[in-house]
Write a structure and sequence with these properties.
Helix content is about 40%, strand content about 20%. The chain is of the alpha+beta class.
């Protein structure tokens, strides 16, 4: 019984608990919790400010992007023309204008157009007033891209040959071609041609050998 009593006394004995220490511990614990809450709140505020700054930056970037001018899908004249790079076949007319390919603005398609050919007359030996351009009759140009018909180009070669032969021009000759609206008159002057052109001028140098020399 004595041993049991001693054990009980030892169990209940020990360093006395100081009420002030308990209150201090509770106060410290409360302070720590408050500080943690303040830290969390501070972090939340910082994150919120950072997020707003990021969104503002993205908004400015969007504004910068929206201010960049958008290039138009089509630039220049309604039709772009180019010469075919294939070697020209010998032409009985004595001169060959390469095949002409065209690409059109889908929003400005024409059904028909006329070929205009300007040529250099500085090498003419014939006297008198000289015309320096030839206007062909209209031809079909359906679709957004294509090539002027071969028989149409043959007719253009023959027509140009007649002009060059009449003016006694031979050898290398500088010419420029363009396509114009079908309403262009056959005797149109420069002002009307420029007003009704569908393409820019496309220059090239051709060789003329008169099949029926008279000069």
């Amino acid at each position: 019984m004595a041993g049991l009593t001693v054990t009980e006394i030892k169990t209940e004995s020990g360093p006395p608990r100081d009420p002030c220490s308990r209150e201090a511990q509770e106060w410290y614990s409360g302070t720590s919790s408050a500080r943690n809450k303040e830290d969390d709140l501070r972090k939340s505020i910082i994150l919120a400010i950072g997020g707003l700054a990021l969104l503002a930056g993205c908004g400015n970037q969007g504004d910068k992007t929206s201010n960049v001018p958008i290039k138009p899908k089509w630039e220049g004249a309604p039709y772009h023309i180019a010469f075919d790079t294939q070697a020209a076949k010998p032409n009985p007319a004595g001169v060959t204008i390469p095949a002409i390919k065209y690409t059109a603005n889908p929003n400005e398609l024409e059904k028909r157009a006329s070929l205009v050919v300007k040529f250099d007359t500085s090498g003419a030996t014939n006297q008198g007033p000289l015309a320096n351009q030839m206007i062909m009759a209209p031809v079909d140009i359906s679709g957004a891209e294509g090539t002027l018909p071969a028989d149409y180009m043959d007719a253009a070669d023959k027509g140009l040959s007649r002009f060059l032969g009449a003016y006694c021009i031979k050898g290398k000759i500088k010419i420029s071609v363009a396509i114009a609206r079908s309403s262009l008159s056959g005797q149109a002057g420069d002002a009307e041609v420029d007003a009704k052109r569908l393409s820019d001028w496309l220059p090239i140098e051709v060789v003329y050998k008169n099949p029926h020399p008279k000069c």
